[in-house]
Structures are given as structure tokens and as C-alpha cells.
Amino acid sequence: xxxxxxxLLCPVCRQDLQPVHDGGTGRVRALACxxxxxxxxxxxxxxxxxxxxxxxxxxxxxxxxAARTAFLDAGxxxxxxxxxxxxxxxxxxxxxxAVLDSGTGTGHYLRAILDYLDGSGARDSREGLAAVGLDISxxxxxxxxxxxxxxxxLVGDVWQPLPLPDAAVDVVTVVFAPRNAAxxxxxxxxxxxxxxxxxRAGHLGEVxxxxxxxxxxxxxxxxxxxxxxxxFAPLSTRDIDVDLSLSPEDVANLALMxxxxxxxxxxxxxxxxxxxxxxxxxxxxxxxxxxxxxxxxGL
Length: 299
Prior knowledge:
The chain is of the alpha/beta class. Helix content is about 30%, strand content about 25%. The strands form 2 sheets. The protein has an 8-stranded mixed β-sheet. Strands 1-2-3-4 form a 4-stranded antiparallel β-sheet, with no helix packed on it.
């Protein structure tokens, strides 16, 4: 069940969406606005708010999502998930807090935030929390809805107007996902936090060439600052270094779960990685950057 249903906006007319409950179970079976636009819950529990032509961006495939689930469920990136949850928690302690996980994928990092709030003594805030997971992949949302049933999980395009009112959320998290600075600034409360996770130089360098991973742009930090300039100001950064011990199957999942997975065949990749030792030491290098909204003259 949802901890608290956030106010959502219809992607067609921007009117408030109201929950339509199932009379037998009490579950939300649809979201509908007064203009009679309605969005049914998928069998797996998510809602598809893509309208018109949908999105021009290629969403993660079922195979990519399966690889990501296997890799993350093995705990390889657990230190990152824990650090992200710690960064988000201070801004989620007030009354009726709300978090948007943009590019939520399988919901792994949002789950870490929810669990951290449960275990940190912030139970009063946790009970009133509204959590939203947004992604363009229905395959990812199927898993996210199962993992985070107390959140509302939405198929949507981050480059379209987000289905949230102005100043609706306390925290926006973005983990290896696109960033729409204008929309994030619009939906964040004035005292809110934007938390962005990016890879650093040397990330997965030991297996990058064998696995066909995309390289890390050396100007990544500069491009992030430029993309957010005028709408967000930096508050803090924290670097997370994780030393991984990966099997060949882990390395294959690592390659298939990211952007390279769109053009990578598992059978060919498995053959390519056959020469790897039973365990390969790999360095994961992350940066957690926290931003606060800036006042924009004229807006």
C-alpha cells in the first residue's frame, strides 16, 4: 500500500489526478482527472503516464533490467545505495515529506532510502512519506512496483513536464539517469535537495574494454554544473570508492545493465569474457553531488 499518495497531475490536461480504488481490495486501480482522462494500474502495479507519441528515447529492455536486478541484488553497489540514502534522509524529516526518484529503474536506490528512513528512527516521517519512482521502461517499473509497493511507480519521460505540481517534493534523486534541471527546479520545494550520482574517472576501468563499457567523459563534472547552472547551486559532494570482486557473469551483467546493453548480445559477450579469471578485482568510483535550488529572477 502507498504510504501517502502524492498529488499527481494528468499528463494530458495538467489537472489533479485522483485515485480510483478497487471496492474489494481498496487498492488504487486507476488514476483519473475531472476531464475524464484515466490511467489504469498495470497488473504489476505501476501506472503508464506516457501519452501521445510517448518518448523518443530508447527504454531499457527486459534483458537489461534482468541483468541490473541480478547485479544489484548481489549487493555490489550496496555502499553507494547506503550513502545515497544517508544524503537524502536529512531533507525527508519534516511533516509530509516527498521524494522523487527520477530514472528509478528497478527501484533499488529508492528502496534503500525507504529502508534507511525506517531504520533511522524517523518512523513518524516515514509513515507520511510520499515516494514516486519515474522511469521510461515498463520492464524496469514492473520490478520497481514489486520492490517498492508503498511508492507510486510511473512510466514517464523526464524530458516532458513531470506529473507533479510546483514545489511538491523535498528530494529528487537521479542515479545514472538524465537530468531535466528546469523540471526538477519546478517540482522541488525551496528548501529541497537535488541529489545526483555520477561515475568518476577510473570507474570500472579494469573491465571497461573487455565488456564494451562506455568511457567516462573527463569533463563530466563541468557538464553537470553547466546543465544545472542558474537553477541549482552546489551544496556538497561525496566520493564513494567500492572495490568489487566480480565473476565473469557479474561482469556480463554489469555490461548489459547499462547503456551498452542496448547494443550488446549476451551470448557474444559471454564468449568474449570467457578468458576472465574466476574473480576479477574491479574499482567502482562514484560521486554523490547535492544541490539546492537557486532563485531565478523572473520565474
